[in-house]
Amino acid sequence: MIRSAGLAISAAALFLSTVSFAQQADKSVLKGAAAFGDWRADKPGVRRLIRPDDMPKPYATKSASNSASPAERPQDAKPQLPPGFSAELIASGIDNPRVVRVAPNGDLFVADSEANQVRVYRLTEGSAKPAEDGIFASNLNQPYGIAFYPPGDSPQWVYVANSDSIVRFAYRNGDLKTSGDPETIVDNIPANHHWTRDIAFSPDGKTLYLSVGSGSNVAEGMGKEPKGGLAAWAKSQPLGAAWGSEDGRADVLAFDPNGNNGRIFATGLRNCSGMTVQPATGALWCVVNERDALGDNVPPEYATAVKEGAFYGWPWYYIGNNEDPRHKGERPDLAGKADIPDVLMQAHSSPLNIAFYEGTSFPAEYKGDAFVALHGSWNRGNRTGYKVVRLLFKDGKPTGEYEDFITGFVASNGEVWGRPVGVAVASDGALIVSEDGNGTIWRVTHGDGRS
Questions:
Q1: Count of domains observed in the chain
Q2: What is the pLDDT of residue 206?
């Protein structure tokens, strides 16, 4: 009897999976100009594919200043999800919940950036209700990125990226509060303008990656040439490295775990606000906020695998060999040398974090895909973002398509109650999402919500 029941369940699961896959395959994909919609057309399941050739010319529309006003979350408001998924509130009233990272024992570490704290939540099994919570560390400086070291089941340290430094705290699985003072690993990180610093470790634990966003929109204060001349600079520095006030910025940097041997890993990433390592390949991924003031749909934001030594265009080029008109003719030596990112997303939607899904509690077709939190636009006539999207992968490679997964944070054309920031996959396969519009954290599950 038990064997027969198991076979019946397996057959049913196979049927449902097949139906689900067929439904996914049948979905129409918005392409070209149709992909450049706004929040009113957003809903779970809407799928887009934006290609480099789809971009309008710069200044096809005027540059807009169109920030949404924050609204109180209606009492019954919840994120909108695809059929079969549900969301439960973990916590609310947090000052500024940003990055969420999951400790090996399952605890949720949350950067409460404006409160200068890192919070920790231990959930009751199979529930969004915290069994315990606390302030792991305080007296920080706009903490954002969080990483556990060494990678694996028994970390000894929690690394935290402040806006101006990386520090680490001694840690053992289950610690709800640090037992000692922070040790500074990297200091003197420039902290003005783009301040969100994310960190990640390579799978072998030998390399610590740090993202440092630009200090401006398009290097307005950098100057036309570095001291000593452009030719000498280009010869002595990594491809596309900036100088002056932007020296060491718009980059992903790499260090040894102790903070030594600092070097530039990749350049030209205006603001890589979220980093992670793809489990299937070990590749480092970034989600990047591109530049403003070229029009509603120029240039797209993006997610990309970051290659060592690669140049991604900022400030002279964007999305490959498209020259920024504000820097016309300044770097002909870089023409054709900027890498084209893997997944393009609507311009000005402000991607802030990325997490790959390797859990087993979501339908099978989600495995290997990635979730990205879009904080929302301001430099766009018709607002976009304010949602969590799913990047589609096949055999470990991105298809270029992305799909609305969580929407419903926009209250009206002028107000939003939620601005997604952090995404993380819990140890039971649930998706954890933070948003800083109303300071909430959510647990998203499929089916009955139990692992």
A1: 1
A2: 98
